[in-house]
Amino acid sequence: MLVRDLENPGVDFVSTDLFTLPTTAYISDLVMANSERFTVLYDKTFVLSYINRDSLVDTFTKPMQSHIKYRGSATSSASNAEGALYLVVASNAASNYPTIESNLSFTYTDD
User: For residues 55 and 96, what is the distance between their CA atoms, to the nearest angstrom?
Assistant: First the structure.
């Protein structure tokens, strides 16, 4: 899931900001109280198996006419402001699996 945070308070969001059942279900409804805070840009469920060591490749393009704003020059979450992008990955496995490896590419104009 690729999510844009439109009201970032200067800290990374936690799962309870986004999902109604973050600790009991990996497929959960979004928290409606935060529906104006988050925009889901991409959401897809993949089934991976540690037995078969499945792998998959998925690509998508999402044109956006929006800004990502920063509060400062630090490389920490405290500098994030409106429009921050997060890759959200959830699993029903308690540990070790699945292993996620990704290559992300963003093209932007600095104005």
Answer: 15
